[in-house]
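Quick one: structure for this chain?
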Amino acid sequence: MVDPTKRGIEYKWLALFVVAIGTYMSTLDSSIVNISFPVLSKLFNTDPSTVLWVSLIYMLTLTGLMLTFGRIGDAFGRKRVYTLGFLIFSLGLALCSVSQNIIQLILFRMIQAIGSAMTVASGTAIIAAAFPDRERGKALGIQGAVVGAGLMSGPALGGFLLDLFDWRSIFYLRLPVGIIGSVMAGLILKEQRAEGHRGTFDYLGALTLFGGLVTLLLGVNRGQALGWSSAPILTLFGVSIVFLGSFIAMERKVGTPVVDLTLFRNRLFTGSAVSLVLSFVASTAVTFLMPFYLMQGVGYSPAYAGLLLTTVPLTRLIFAPLSGWLSDRIGYRFLCSAGLTLICLALILLGRLTIDSSVKEVIVGFAIMGLGSGLFEAPNNSSIMGAAPQERLGTASAMISTARSVGMSTGLALAGAIFASRQLYHAAQLAPASLAPELLQSKALVGGFNDALLVAAIICGIGILTSLIPA
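Got it. Here's what it folds into:
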């Protein structure tokens, strides 16, 4: 085998390219499958609440395992975890493509999520270790652009494949990329592991962490449907508290914890992680609620609404690399705070939209949101990775992904609950006005949308404050 680094290509760029393939595949997977839900519901003759588990089981498994695989990568080798994860992810793609019923598809999605958790947990750590500190922001900015590309292309690519082929093509046509990525990871990446921890692992801690995160996110995601005060949801939250409390108690005593809790003594690490969670809690409100506003509130077609929604990831795709490059030169704090301030401004502007607002107003709000996200994420991720010692880079990498997933799940549940309750409130307030039913419904929907985005802006404002915590 010819070493590509002898042809003038530095290892750090090759490592970034290999990780970027996995990042794109994982990000794409979170958005490409959802568009197939109506087709799956009809084909397998099942209700939408069952089809929802195709996505939900993936999210629960991914979030529950990322911190564990981050620790395994630190102890046993990040290349090993990343490469094996890519292979398992590819196996999941193959199995999903031959599923004969909805139960098989859900189970095979779990296998796919295990592989994705392994690649996501190790990917950022591999990049951080490959690049010097003075270039880490630039590298993570490029990775952020890849995330934007995955989010932007998922719905469009999924719709194209469904129209041209069938639902199975969403899985099997990505299989060659998965195989190529696995081979490249095995041939190109250099092994990285923390010295002195080989062969030790806290299995009980990993189990309690998985149980705590899965029950927490399951409760958050199903709370609106089942009722926040219902017995199943209260039970899930209660079990989550027991599991996570036990996890924290155990991690303080074991010699090789899954999550080194001393990381949170570093104010930079803690402040950056909290800001990341809050940013996704806030911005998820736009991702979730804007389609309701555009299609049901003002009557745009799904195609036109989808085109408008690409403004956010497209803007992020452009500015994320620039933000990462700047963070290497001027530091993280200003860019993180400025990015969150722009996200907050976008939430306020979008939260003031009415049924008579112009497309220009929508695009301006989306562009500011994308710019803010692009400015914030790379410096924020770089600050988290920079605050962690080399032997804990895998844990820090997994913390970023876990914070993102927890923030999105919480934001989705919070935005949905506020939107639903306030829409009913506005409908009751407008009832005496004797409006046409369609107009009343549109105005009530927009009112609920406005209120939910206002709450999201307040949450983002708190994130601005946590981003200013001094190191």
